[in-house]
Structure formats: structure tokens, C-alpha cells
Predict the 3D structure of the following.
Amino acid sequence: MNPSTASPSAPAGRPLASEPAQAAAKPLAPAPAPAGSGVPTQTAFGCPRMFLENRFVYVVVSPRARGLSVCVNMNPNKQCNFGCIYCEVDRSIPSSEAHLDVEVAAAELTRTLAFVLSGQLQQQPFYSAFPPELLTLRHVSLSGDGEPTLCPNFSEALESVIHVRARGRFPFFKLVLTTNATGLDLPEVQRSLKFLTKQDEIWAKLDVGTEAQFQTLNAPEAGITLEKVLSNILLVGRQRPIVIQSLFPIVAGLEPQAIDIEQYAMRLKELKAAGAQISLVQIYSATRPVVSRQCSHLPLKALSRIAQIVRLETGLRVEVY
């Protein structure tokens, strides 16, 4: 382990399931998501999620990652407290897994990292035409088919990924938590986030600037408000730099209205003024096949216009995907 990149206080994590010595070299073939996962043929950011014969770990080429992301599906049971109208997860299809098995996921992560870093992924038919830079590992993501912080064994899962990294078998990799921010104030989550290094990132969702838009676009469970999301982003943003991820779709044929974008920019401005360390705002749209037919992709020109408004109003760094 490189002491200059690994967290000195990172937990050892629970012991991982023992792996056969030849596991890293075992041929993996791109396979569809497990039956019932809701993603047998769908794509993520225009590229398929490949589970590579795994139950919980998959790979995807992600523009926002600028290359390959290895992801741990923290919610194989599709548990989420949002019902975003642009979501690609079909919850009418039963899940094939009731919960995240941390030991299995850790073994899958180890095997998948070895496979990716050995260059074997590019030998697979689907990836053979990809330029090498797109198959370069950019980070390991805690994400998946629901809200990661709702995972009952969130701390155990995070510690397990940190343990895989701390063993020093692979070059240091960045860890990214993608979240809708509603669970960032949970005591278990707050304790776990302290083990992240400065290189690790938290990507928090903020799509709107008003409660009405929040209820319409994100359709949260009863009792969850935009104020809750903003409060939690501020909580964590005061502790460490945070990335804001914002998806803007066309809904029922209509682009976001000017007043909605202005209100969204105002919320970011208020967060910044209150002390949130927002390192980046990601502006993107619904490029994945979604369950709801009322959503479609917002053109690049419109996304760029939103980004420019945010830059002018907040002075924040903004990127469009």
C-alpha cells in the first residue's frame, strides 16, 4: 500500500472471501445483467452495463468518468426513495437479488479490477473497437439500481471496497459515491464517509431549484423535501469538496423553462455562499433508455445554455456531457 495515497485511518474492513489464485486470470465474458435486474439490454450513458458474469459488480464506459467505471450495485433489490421520471430502472420487474452480499461483491470487485487492469476487457468483442483511453479505469463507484445510502450494510460495503484498495494489489483507484443526498446525514453514513481519502469523491444529485419541480421530476417518497436534499449537500459540502450531478430531460416534449433554470442556479449559489465546497457541477441529460416514455434527451445546445447560466450566476466550474 502506498502511504501517500491511502487513508491512514481507513478500516481494515471485514475479511474478504478467499479467492482462488487463478481468479484474476479467469476469462470473463460480457454478459447481460442478472435476470430480473431490469437492465438486460439497456445502456448507461450510451454504453451497456456489463456484469461480466458477476452478481453485483459491473463495468460501464462513462463520459462523466471520462473512461471506464467499475461499479458496485449497492441496491440490487432496486430500493430507492426517489421515483425520478427519467430513471432507467424498471421496478415492475422483480429483482434477482434481495440484498448486497458484501463478501461476494468484494471478490467480484477484485476479479473485475484484475481483468480490467490486465487489458483483457478490450479483447472482448463489444469493447474491441474502443480506444484504450475509454477503457482506462477512472474510478470505482458505489452506485447501482437505487440509492446507495439506503443499503442496509452501507458501511460494511464501503469498508470492503476500501480494504480491496488498501491491500495494494492494484494501483490506487478513486472511489466515487453517487447519491441523491437524502441519506448523507445518517449516522452510519457520516461515520463511513470519514474513511474516504481526499482523492475520493461524492457525487450528489440536484436536478431542480423548487419544491414543485422536485416533486414532479424526482417524485420522492412522502416526507422527503428539496430542503432535505439541500441541507444534506450543505452538511457534506462543508466537510469536504462535493460534486453536483444534475440531469435535465425533455419532459412531455418540453424543455426546462428559464425560471426553473434560474431557481436551480440560485440554489447552487446559496449553497456556495453557505460554505458548500462545490468542486464541479455536472450538467447532462437522459441518454439511457428510460421506463417513462414522457422523457427524452435534452439537446447539447440546451445543456450548454444551462451550463452558461450556472457559470454566470455562481462562478462554479461546470461541465456538460
